[in-house]
Amino acid sequence: MRTTRPSVLFVMPQLNAGGAERSLINLFNELPTDCADMSLLLLNKTGSLLSQIPEYVNLIDTPSEIREMYGEKKSLQMRLWWMYANAVSKIHTKDDEARRQYRWKKFYSSKIGMLRQKFDTAVAYISGESLYYLVEKVYARRKVAWIHNDYESAGYHKGFDEPYLERVDDIVTISDKCANALRRQFPGLKNKIKVLPNISSLSAINKQSLEFYPQEYSSQGCNLLSIGRLNPQKGFDFAVDAAKILKDKGLDFHWYIVGPGNSKEINGLNRMIKRNGLERNVSLLGIRDNPYPYIRNCDIFVQPSRFEGKSVVLDEAKLLCRPILVTNYQTANEQITDQKNGVICDMTPQSIAESIMKMLYSPELLKQIRHNLQESRDRWSTNIEDYVDILTNVG
């Protein structure tokens, strides 16, 4: 039976422990449960955060044709077709983003039917195939695209994305610099672009951070932590090279990297670790369902990224009052003020290593950073009303 509340659908590829995925869970936790009839569709119903979806959110059954395309279980006929689609797409382009776009346009789109349910508002909460599916296959009075990265730095393909962005009502991004990049790329769509910073749930993060002490952490020396997907954007190759410099300087430390990666990314970083003799100093921990105890108990949280939009994990580290080191990617100073609530260094392994050493041997600096972070935490508030407005205002 239809209620008077608006119906809202979120579309995501899956629900692994990435920044966009965690920000969606945080958003669900902060939204008033009675503001809308909330639904979530995952193209592939997998991910370590599935258990954290609140009860009031309806997890829609993924349509069978999508489940076969994106899931692990495929019929023989679908597997052969899927292998052919991927092979042709790889021949067309070696770029991963362009390959997925080609695959959607030439193969996936024609085999996927319209979603049967209708909604007042539908949201692609991440760019890429979630957006293409939203625009082509979902009935909704309003459609919203969410872009979590700096569009220019991320190397997205404007020519493919623009026709889809033209067909949504709002384009939401997470920082002023990300919005400006979108306005430069899509000047004709500038009136659609809005800024809503990612939501971080202070109460949920604090509670989860106390659940355990990481058994991997060393009781001696310094525990460094980085979190993110193991792709080039996150700069973990910088981290491994910086770790070699720290080891050569005689620092007693262990650097833990939490996050998912494909076999190519994992093997590449492990080869770097082995080549530099860092097996006792750097560990790839993979996905952790609850990363917050790792953040709470690290000595320095290091983000060696090449680019970011507005980092979810940085906000989480700030809420847990951990000393933070970030590289000077374009949007870094939107979250970190150098020497105040963290340290910003050059985007080189040498600068990362030198900054870690400086922080460890500057107890007064670390004390001041923690103090400033605690003061900011005490003033923490969310802009949840703006989220409710964009999700429920259907005219």
UniProtKB/TrEMBL annotation:
Gene3D superfamilies assigned: Glycogen Phosphorylase B (3.40.50.2000)
Keywords carried by this UniProt record: Transferase
One term of GO molecular function: glycosyltransferase activity
UniProt keyword annotation of Transferase present: yes
Residue span, Glycosyl transferase family domain: 224-372
Pfam families on file: Glycos_transf_1
InterPro entries: Glyco_trans_1
Keyword Transferase: yes
Name the record gives this protein: Glycosyl transferase group 1
